[in-house]
Write a structure and sequence with these properties.
163 residues; alpha+beta
């Protein structure tokens, strides 16, 4: 009986690890696609990773965007703010996945990131966190909302995006 119980406990532990590993890659896939597309200036691909009724909270005015035009409005407002403030060469580097939670249809993912850019030609970086809410639909996982949280940018080369 003891051997049977140990075997059962071992199989449950292995099964739990397999379940935990699979969703993490599935959950980060739309996030990675979004950030890669953003870095390349490919707004069509970046937008396709988001649900139509997305909510975005970011550090550029007006700071929140919601609904079917949220992604396009955010991209426009960010671009306008960058032009106004002398920001260019924007790039977001994804770092460690700090937390994932999922019930199989909804998910919560927190990632370390670094935003690098130039401010009037001066290299800047901003280590931060992005928190994503995702939903799984017929076409897979999509970003339902995200927030940017971090301190103000500082001069110099970008550090690695870690904890």
């Amino acid at each position: 009986m003891r051997v049977l119980m140990l075997g059962l406990a071992g199989s449950l532990a292995l099964g739990s690890m397999a379940l935990a590993a699979t969703p993490r890659a599935e959950l980060t896939a739309p996030i990675t696609t979004f950030i890669d597309a953003f870095d390349k200036g490919d707004s069509k691909t970046a937008a396709a990773t988001h649900m139509a009724d997305v909510t975005i909270i970011d550090e550029a005015p007006p700071y929140i965007w919601r609904g079917p035009t949220a992604f396009a409005s955010w991209a426009h407002d960010l671009s306008a703010d960058d032009a106004k403030t002398g920001v260019a060469g924007e790039k977001v580097t994804l770092g460690d996945v700090l937390r994932t939670e999922t019930d199989g249809r909804h998910a919560y993912v927190v990632m370390a990131v670094v935003y690098s850019f130039t401010d009037h030609g001066k290299p800047m970086h901003e280590p931060a966190r992005m928190t994503f809410a995702l939903r799984k639909g017929a076409d897979g996982w999509k970003i339902a909302g995200w927030t940017w949280t971090g301190p103000r940018a500082s001069a110099g080369e970008a550090p690695a995006a870690k904890h």
